[in-house]
UniProtKB/TrEMBL annotation:
Region (Disordered): 250-275
Protein name per the record: L-lactate dehydrogenase complex protein LldE
GO molecular function, one term: oxidoreductase activity
Superkingdom: Bacteria
Coiled-coil zones: none
Classification via InterPro entries: Cys_rich_dom
Limits of the Cysteine-rich domain: 10-88, 138-222
GO annotations of cellular component type: cytosol
PANTHER family on file: LACTATE UTILIZATION PROTEIN A, UNCHARACTERIZED PROTEIN YKGE
Amino acid sequence: MPIPRPRVGLMVTCLNDALFPDTGRAVVSLLRRLGVDVEFPAAQTCCGQPMVNTGYLDDAVPLVRNHLDAFAGYDAILAPSGSCAGSVRHQHGLVARRSEDPGLVRGVESAPPVYELSEYLVDVLGVVDVGAYFPHRVTYHPTCHSLRMLGVGDRPTRLLRAVRGLTLLDLPGSGECCGFGGTFAVKNSETSIAMGNDKARHVRSTGAEVLVAGDNSCLMHVGGLLSRQRSGMRVMHLAEVLAQTEPVVERRTERAADPTSVGSAVPDATTEAVR
């Protein structure tokens, strides 16, 4: 009997769902290309990180319960965000223990493991070269939660170096925070902007065409500053770069031009992902 493929639940995160849906589509396209059975549980909501980070742990209890229900039965959970992956992995336990609900504590302890995208690709799938093609000069910003809370290390840069056509440029001061920090950017806006400007200056100094990171929250912050500075530099999530493939030049034959031929109406993974 064939061995069943692991079921992976995509925790797309609030920010991606609301503002950056292309990142979620890229994750699905990439994983399906690698043979992973990935699904999107529609019942998922916020992971509760904003409440926990601002000290409202009790308000995060319903969100932790919903997370457990939405992702029950999966072999693994994947998030294209070091911030949200770190929240589930480290903060859900804090919320559960504070609630003094033994059932919630057991639920968190037995929940499927949560992986940030680069962790899943490198550690679980054992893949570094994902078959991507992206002929551009790129620099990479390691976001705070992925760097410090999850310890993803060089996994993202190993993945980027294996992309055909990509030139990876070192980012000065790469380990410095970009200044976003969620509600920090609102409560301490002047400090946040100053930190963001420092990061933007370092990014521009590389001469890269594209700034890549594993969290769209950081890219939104730095990207906004780069846009105001009219830098001409794009920002892209790691998943969107890894999902890129080399264009296929097809010969136009009678069979290929025939609309009834096999494969003429086969949808791609991205189309299937959003149905």
